[in-house]
Amino acid sequence: MRIVVDLNRCQGYAQCVPLAPDVLEMLGEEALAYDPNPDDAQRQRVLRAAAACPVQAIMVETHTPDGPEPEE
Amino acid sequence: MSTASLAADLVRMFRAEGRIVIVGASLAGLRAAEALRDKGFCGPLTLIGDETHEPYDRPPLSKQVLKGWVRADHTKLPRMRDIDAQWRLGVAATGLDRVNKQVLLATGDAVPYDRLLIATGVRARPWFNPAEAALQGVFTVRTCDDAARLQAALRAGPKRVLVVGSGFVGSEMASVCCELGLPVTVAERGGGPLVGPLGGVIGDIAARMQRDAGVDLRTGVSVEALDGDAGGHVRRARLSDGTTLDVDVVVASLGSIRNVEWLAGAGLAAGFWGVGCDAGCRAFDINGVVTDNVFVAGDVARQPHVLYEYQFISMEHWDNAVCGAQVAANNMINLETERRPHLPLPSFWSGQFGVNIKGVGVCSFGDEIVFTQGSPEDYRFAAAYGHRGRIVGAVTFNHGKWLPYYAAMIERSAPFPPPPPGYDRASDPAPMPARFPDPRVPTEMPDVVLTGHDPTSRGAEFHWAREPA
């Protein structure tokens, strides 16, 4: 699955981190680091973490790509 | 039938059957496509991108990817909805025929459009000497392929890394090298790291931060040549102060070039600084007249900003790509009264040497700076930038929660120096010159600079800094 965090919006509240500790972690007191491509097994945890973000900075893929094919 | 109902019919028809082509399949291109579908556009939609990869996120490339935490091909952007587009990836747009409304491709195909969005972004400025740039071990970092190659080279444990240039990306890469335990030298032609975006006062702090972390920071020098060994691998750098360095990885972090070459001859206001457009993302033609059917978003766009004396500003910022794409999409499928302006307060972030750097506004528009909170000694502070008595930008080091406070003041055009916040006041609240480089000083590029911002004082000067080699 894919996620992206808007790090402009992220204020380092760290509400998300304990809910998906394998995907999100704090670097120091206010910077968030994240795995943009976590395992699908993490989906429920990531969704809970995204819901817990006070500024809604975490975007979780809601749609499977419609398969762009590189041209030969 | 009234004119108004005719126009409404035309909009309905365009939304149902119009053809929209987006050139540039990265953050801005993808988010524009999603916004078009969200807003009810049902016609054929084509996305063209010169990379073979589907849209991916770039900020992790100079951070998590180089550290080896995240694989370079694992930063694909999440899809927020089905966009039902025809994708043409791995094929570059080579021309724009506005008369026949066609985008010309490297394959020889022509893709017809009724409305076009230009979102071609920027690319890394390559090392200036092509033979040296081709040496193994010489890198730039812009694409995920770049990041994958550099990550592999860092993992191999080079004896010394040379980072040329110390803007945000160069500084982040130096920080990564330190975290990986690799000896790193940073060569900066200016007075210090981050001086371009944040000025010399902050540059001095950033320089101390780098040296504290163990970076061999050399300022006021340029790298004049790179020497390779018999196998074609870089081994040595020669600096303008006469010294040489033994290095086996060189990262050229020399800023970016806007991807506008494919627009040559199209009659648009496209050039060195990007594609000029109005605040509604509509491209200007070469005469400065707004076009009806060509829109621009993301790093390649350059538009006037009300907060900054209507100067044309291009913002290579993540949320500028997202918000610009959404505004462009809205304006592509609406009439005048429903159009929205793209007037973001620029904002940016960077993580380096364990410090979270965030900023808002256009700091380099300011000429004065004042420390408002915290302490520079601890790399934990907020500082505001002023221009003609009002606040125009702010930067924080490990103080990001206060940024909205400053953003609100900038948006309200509050006085500078700003009223002291009621928390963690800085010990020395006196404004001082921010020490930005003089924009009239020639850079390595042939360059045109405008002097004066109001019509009576406006002029252009052409600089040819250095004869090309």
List keywords for this structure.
heterodimer, A: about 70 residues, alpha+beta, two-stranded antiparallel ribbon, 4 strands, B: about 475 residues, alpha/beta, FAD/NAD(P)-binding domain, 6-stranded mixed β-sheet, 6-stranded antiparallel β-sheet, 9 helices, 31 strands, about 30% strand, globular
Quaternary structure state of the chains depicted? heterodimer
CATH superfamily of the domain at 3-123 and 257-338 in chain B: FAD/NAD(P)-binding domain
Distance between the termini of chain B: 66 Å
User: What characteristic shape of chain A results from the CA principal axes?
Assistant: globular
Name of the level-1 CATH class of the domain at 3-123 and 257-338 in chain B: Alpha Beta
Level of helix content of chain A? Answer: 10-25%
What is the count of DSSP helices of chain A, taking H or I runs of 4+ residues? 1
- SS-based structural class of chain A? alpha+beta
> Mean pLDDT of chain B, as a whole number?
93
| Element order of chain A: H for helix, E for strand | EEEHE
The count of DSSP E runs of length 2 or more, i.e. the number of strands of chain A, is: 4
Strand content of chain B: 25-35%
Strand content of chain A: 15-25%
Beta-strand segment tally of chain B: 31
Q: Which geometry of chain B do the CA atoms define?
A: globular
For the largest sheet of chain A, list the strands in their spatial order.
1-4
Percent range for helical residues of chain B? 10-25%
Radius of gyration of chain B: 23 Å
Largest interface: A-B, 31 and 46 residues
Cofactor (chain A): [3Fe-4S] cluster
InterPro entries (chain A): Fe-S_cluster_ET
Keywords (chain A): 3Fe-4S, Electron transport, Iron, Iron-sulfur, Metal-binding, Transport
Pfam families (chain A): Fer4_13
